[in-house]
What does this fold into?
Amino acid sequence: MAHLVGAERVRFETPTRVILDELSLGLETGDRIGVVGRNGEGKSTLLGVLAGTRQPDAGRVTARNGVRIGVLDQADRLAPGTVLQAVVGDRPEHEWAGDRRVREVLSGLLHGVDPDADVESLSGGQRRRVALAALLTGDADVLLLDEPTNHLDIEGVRWLAAHLDDRWPAGQGALVVVSHDRWFLDAVCTRMWEVHDRVVDAFEGGYAAYVLQRLERDRQARSMEERRQNLLRKELAWLRRGAPARTSKPKFRIEAANELIADVPPPRDGVQLHSMAVARLGRDVVDLVDASAGYGGAPVLEHVEWRIAPGERTGILGRNGAGKSTLLGLVDGTIAPTAGRVKQGKTVRVRRLTQQLDELADVAGDRVLDVIGRLRTGYRVGDAELAPGQLLERLGFPSAQLSTRVGELSGGWKRRLQLLLVLLDGPNVLILDEPTNDLDTDMLTAMEDVLDTWPGTLIVVSHDRYLIERVTDQQYAVAGGRLRHLPGGVDEYLSLEDAETVVVPDAQAVAGPSLSGSERRDLEKQLASLDRRMQRLATETRADHDALAAHDQSDYVGLEAIAGRIRDREEERETLELEWLEAAERLESA
It folds into this structure.
């Protein structure tokens, strides 16, 4: 391994507090590091210091000569121009179209985005994806990514994880990523950094490994409060009893972890929660019977059959624009069906946690504890009756935040307060629409703990695979205007996506005006074959260049032989690129 970037005794402070102090760490080739920590602890600051965009107040940051550092921050700054110009710059079409990496990034991140659209016309989510695409088409030796999964759907997150896994050969390049997506961290990272209390602690393995090691560290140190240890024990029990893949990355002994959770019950008592839900709801919750919905005469959902039972915990999956929000509108009554019917039980009380924070605008000048105290004097969590202050603590609010005005809270704290207000309103059907926005991993763990003991019907729409698998017991997919049950969960959904059986496009759009299905498949196979051949040629050409540089410079015959191989391969590559472009044009125009 070779040193790439290092920080030595770095200190970074703001006018009100010190963020990092006496920090020393380094990046080496092959590093794949995930960064976690509470909001405000300094995760983004750490990336900025390593990138050189933020200057430390003390200490120094060094980089090896010639190291290229690529940064994705949360500003999404894009130069004026079209989407395609933002991603590939001024490169001619034959050049970028023949670049396998560029083609993969464009198809993986910018599906549905008009390449000729002006960047100023894009939504925030589209700008984020364009900024990420522009970064990934480059040749950076080090990638520093701040929340790269924001605005990506579950397929996009999977694509990004696969891309980062394959981006560099083993032992080359380096990645540092800040993310609250715990599945993504487990899929990509082999080490974790936790930023807290001005320092950075390092852990081997992905997120699952981090949870195990952090619990053991806290248990031995006995410096963490009992509430957090209980939360981590519950999540640890779920991690160890869940899918085997979640524990495949840890690189340390887990015997002690097994002892820690030997007597820990499952995160949820499903039988008890179902019984409580029936008592609160009765037998009838919400029935969608042959229901259809659309806008302006254009159908979005058609012939949906869904009978929601008391106590069900359901995750909804689907691409952006597939109709998930329309489905939620049918369930909560804000959207009327254009055909069929929607029937709500007489005792049903639906509340929906939206992606906006508009409901907090009216109480922006009030203090947090006053807002909570006006709603209810108590809240039942499992068998315990909690006062508002206790529930705030359960959700991780420190005492210092209770006297803070709502308008002065950060996005993450507002999101947590928003959930609390929804729960205190006493719903028995709870809909969470992308609830992970603005939440760090500690906040997500606290939210999941409260949801574990919430006795009602829960519906979650999220691109966060970890959350879906953690808090729901069954999953459905919205695709092609229909609702489909997924007995195999997220893995089944992704498999169906790969087989193109979840998304059902118009038959004419698939076949095209001039290609049969078999002809289209043959073209796709041809493109894949050409990709592989060009990739092999690129590898062989790089090896020839290395051999040319290492060869005895006085051996003219040997040098000419190597140079001849390079010329032959370049000519073959140009021929293959032309074949690829012709096949791609046929496929696109069909």
In short: Residues 510-589 form one domain. The chain has a mean pLDDT of 82. The longest strand covers residues 3-13.
